[in-house]
Amino acid sequence: MSDKKKEEEVLEEVLEDLEKDAADQAEKKKDTSKDKEEPKKEEKAEKTEKKSGFKKKEKKDKKDEKIEELTDQVKRQMAEFDNFRKRTEKEKSTMFEMGASDIIKKLLPIVDNFDRGFKSVTDEELETPFAKGMDMVHKQLLKMLEDADVKPIEALGGEFNPDFHNAVMHVEDDSVGENIVVEEFEKGYTYRDQVIRHSMVKVAN
User: Fold this and answer.
1) Containing H/E element for 2?
2) pLDDT greater at residue 87 or residue 23
3) Which residues, in sequence order, are CB contacts of 138 under 8 Å at separation 6+?
């Protein structure tokens, strides 16, 4: 066998080995790429499933939405009714107080007339049956006002207080202290701690 033929044979063997190696490398790359793609597909599928599942959880059932809507309406209506009830009770109380106050104001002049009448009669006249009958009516009227929480304002001899007293006259009097009520022309009254009529007084300067 010639040297040239030997060289050709060796060269063919080398080429065959290189082709074989190249084919093996290509096969390995293909397998590796396939292995990588499969986990990616699986991971993508898992993400899609999770995403789809999350959306399903977020989406409420129509029945649940309707129940929530009706529950909210009931709560709002109950709150509105409670506010209405409180407002109505307050208005009723205010109207009652105003009505009672107006009636009491109309009764006070009658009490004043009784007081003036008893001051103008003598002790002997007070012993007559008529005067005694008037005194009973007067006391009954005062008792009714007292039961209604109507109280007279104490003024005479006390310090002048503009919250309770109305000064219509002033007098110079060194025998009493300054700003002292020395005379009461008309008695004042309170109804449930609210002044319904100020005392009309004379005050010493």
Assistant:
1) none
2) 87
3) 111, 114, 118
pLDDT in tens, 81-111: 888 888 888 877 777 777 888 899 999 999 9
**Residue 191, SS3 per DSSP:** strand
Q: What is the pLDDT of residues 138-188, one digit of tens each?
A: 999 999 999 999 999 999 999 999 999 999 999 988 888 889 999 999 999
User: Two tokens at 204?
Assistant: 């010493």
The pair of structure tokens assigned to 175 is: 């025998």
- Distance (Å, rounded) from C-alpha 107 to C-alpha 147? 14
Cα–Cα distance, 196 to 108 (Å, whole number): 10
In whole angstroms, give the CA distance from residue 202 to residue 170: 6
Q: What is the pTM of this model?
A: 0.55
From the number of C-beta atoms within 10 Å of its C-beta (0-12, 13-18, 19+), residue 189 rates as buried
Q: What is the pLDDT of residue 132?
A: 92
Torsional class of 163: left (φ above 0), alpha (ψ -120 to 50), beta (otherwise): alpha
Instruction: Decide: residue 161, CB within 10 A, 0-12 exposed, 13-18 middle, 19+ buried.
Output: middle
